[in-house]
């Protein structure tokens, strides 16, 4: 293992996820591979040499695929979500982070808890489960404000066998949804047996969700969290 | 203390520039309260010039990392020890 350096990354494909988020697929020559849950640092350099750096979770089990939420007063995300075109380049450094990762060889059941854009590294775990043909039971509880904010909607509507997906709407629920819109509660996370828990979202969400998991009796040593800032930038 | 903090996971990139092993999986001991836990579990405040990591138990500063134009400064005064997992000898 050597110290990491910046590598050029060329945008090859874009997928719109919501009105304000998109997935960017990059070609990164020499990418060493990664574990689901790891992230990359992204560096943009302006013509005058000014650089801006952000950290994004990898969304897939292979290659460099990022889902980026536009933050209106952000410095980097408006470029990534609205301006960058296939063929354009930036630099990436990674993969980094060996703590918030799922290893397909681990047979323990998994409980994933996502708040908004925090679903991205958890989606990488679900996709890695599929890619490795794992039969490990997975459950995803995904909290979003409204149906329009849902990432990966088609993929999550048809989960793989052994994967349970529940979406918790906090502001506006779609027609026909039995659960009224409201914050995540212990009832949304339970009942569940022993599991390796991964919680990702904004800091406030992670605090609340991790607290609920402990209330439900989950072992703190098996609850791993990843917080991002209040803006995601 | 501001609630706008990240996890120690956010240190992975900046540390990867300095160290060959992943420091975020290392288990550290807080010099202030003695709590042990993974560096990934520290509370990281990125609004300061540089990165300030605080203990999740007592909120004291455990480490600080500042990247200058031609050097990085790593202040570990709040850390008693770091246990860094490594591959077995001969691996």
Automatic annotation (TrEMBL), chain A:
The alphabetical list of record keywords is: 2Fe-2S, Iron, Iron-sulfur, Metal-binding
A GO molecular function assigned to this protein is: 2 iron, 2 sulfur cluster binding
Q: Indicate the segments forming the FAD-binding FR-type domain, all copies.
A: 4-102
Write down the PROSITE patterns for this protein, in alphabetical order: FAD_FR (PS51384)
Segment forming the signal sequence: none
Q: Which domain of life is it from?
A: Bacteria
**Required cofactor(s):** FAD
Q: Does the keyword Nuclease apply?
A: no
* Protein name (database record): Ferredoxin-NADP reductase
From TrEMBL, chain B:
What protein name does the entry list? Answer: Uncharacterized protein
Q: What is the lineage of its organism?
A: Bacteria, Bacillati, Actinomycetota, Actinomycetes, Streptosporangiales
Taxonomic source organism: Nonomuraea pusilla
Highest taxon of the lineage: Bacteria
């Amino acid at each position: 293992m050597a110290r990491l350096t910046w590598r050029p990354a060329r945008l090859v494909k874009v997928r719109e996820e919501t009105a304000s988020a998109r997935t960017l697929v990059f070609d990164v020559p020499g990418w060493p591979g990664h574990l689901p849950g790891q992230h990359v640092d992204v560096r943009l350099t302006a013509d005058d040499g000014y650089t801006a750096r952000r950290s994004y979770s990898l969304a897939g089990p292979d290659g460099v695929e990022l889902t980026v939420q536009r933050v209106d007063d952000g410095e980097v995300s408006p470029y990534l979500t609205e301006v960058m075109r296939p063929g354009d380049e930036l630099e990436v450094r990674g993969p980094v982070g060996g703590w918030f990762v799922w290893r397909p060889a681990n047979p323990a059941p998994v409980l994933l808890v996502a708040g908004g854009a925090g679903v991205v590294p958890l989606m990488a775990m679900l996709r890695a489960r599929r890619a490795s043909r794992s039969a490990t039971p997975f459950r995803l509880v995904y909290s979003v404000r409204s149906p329009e904010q849902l990432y990966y909607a088609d993929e999550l509507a048809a989960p793989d066998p052994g994967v349970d997906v529940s979406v918790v709407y906090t502001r506006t629920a779609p027609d026909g949804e039995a659960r009224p819109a409201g914050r995540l509660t212990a009832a949304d996370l339970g009942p569940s047996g022993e599991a390796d828990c991964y919680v990702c979202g904004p800091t406030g969400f992670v605090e609340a969700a991790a607290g609920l998991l402990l209330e439900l009796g989950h072992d703190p040593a098996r609850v791993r969290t990843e917080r991002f800032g209040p803006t995601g930038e | 203390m501001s609630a706008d903090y990240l996890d120690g996971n956010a240190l992975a990139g900046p540390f990867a520039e300095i160290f060959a092993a992943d420091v975020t999986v290392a288990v550290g001991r807080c010099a202030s309260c003695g709590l042990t836990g993974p560096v990934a579990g520290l509370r990281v405040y990125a609004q300061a010039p540089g990165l300030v990591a605080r203990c999740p138990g007592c909120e004291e500063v455990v480490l600080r990392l500042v990247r200058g134009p031609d050097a990085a400064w790593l202040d570990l005064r709040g850390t008693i020890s770091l246990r860094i997992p490594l591959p077995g000898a001969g691996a």
